[in-house]
Amino acid sequence: MHRGVSFQKHLDRLQQRTWNLTLHRQQNTIASAERDSFAIPGHRFTQNGSINFDDAEKACQSKTTWDLLRSSLILNACSVETFAKHNYQILSWTRRLMGRSVFNAMMRPTVYKQFVGGDDFTSFQETVSRLQTAGVRPLVMVTLEEDVKDDGPDADELFDRNLKIMIDCMEMTASLGSQNPMMQIKPSGLFPLALCKSISTEVPFPSSQPEIVEKIANSIATSKEVKELGKLSTTEIGELNKALNRINQICEVAMKRKLMIMVDAEYTYLNPCLNLLTLAMMLHSNRSEPLVAYTYQNYLKETPNILLKDIELARTHGVTFGAKLVRGAYIYKERALAKENGYPDPVCETFEKTTENYNRSMDIMMEKVVEHPGKFCVTIASHNEDTVKRGTNKHIKTSFGL
Questions:
Q1: What whole-number distance in Å separates Cα of residue 327 and Cα of residue 331?
Q2: pTM of the full predicted structure?
Q3: Most buried residue among 83, 275, 289, 367 by CB atoms closer than 10 A?
């Protein structure tokens, strides 16, 4: 998973914040009774209730021979450690050597086609229709953010344009008529990266500072400006209020269209801010059903503990709670940053330790789903066959009291 996402991040950079709609295969979603509590459309099950991953005919029925050959070549390339670690440099060098036009002509029908669902409504609709024949529902992601200069004189124009792209995509996703429409967003495309870092420094543990979460949630709901937040400068407070206004517009569309939005997590030096904003969005929007979910990266050692604290904050405020469970995508950079800055490596030591973390988070959320129907929603977002099987079996057992 790390390798695939690493390769995808290069495509994101190439697109320069254009409208890309990445489709993720939804392996397993466990939600409330009102939101289709257990559905894996299109999958065939064995007699004991587990998913049959050996049904190649079903898995490949929407693919052409060229699709399968392309996938095999690209995914095998992504599995090469050297390429996965240095893909951006390798592809940048290739683009300089070939020229932008030839490089783009080569990338669009291959790598771009492999990872990106479309760049306009027509191509997106075609991809969705094709995948639906195999029982795959879309989880849409608009790729906007990257570590680029976003604090210049035209920054607000950039963020407002990103907001419009997000809202247009939300409206389009909701109009597809899909059951339980979902969309993944990166709020970091709506305000300066420096602000995200500053807020993360000021509020490192949002669920342990509920008064700040409440302040942000109140600003989103009422448009009342935040006057101060820790040591943020006057300029940063102004940027924060603009960001909260944009987030309010996203929440309003989600509530109006009954569209679940999953807020993506990123690097550890940005995550406290993203976690704070998501919890505030939950207080505002998750009144009767979980429309806002946060992404929990289980390759980070402390993730299950953070999840428990966030659940408690939602419970004490009487709102529903959504979580998307992933392993994580930034292992190389996180370890490099820890070594460079002299702090403990936040990433689990081994794949097995990450799996233990993931299973713990999965158990926490599934128990909550069963104990509090309609109040919790969890998406098991994994490419790992054993993880998906475990999630399926765990849900069957907890649902029927086995």
A1: 10
A2: 0.83
A3: 275
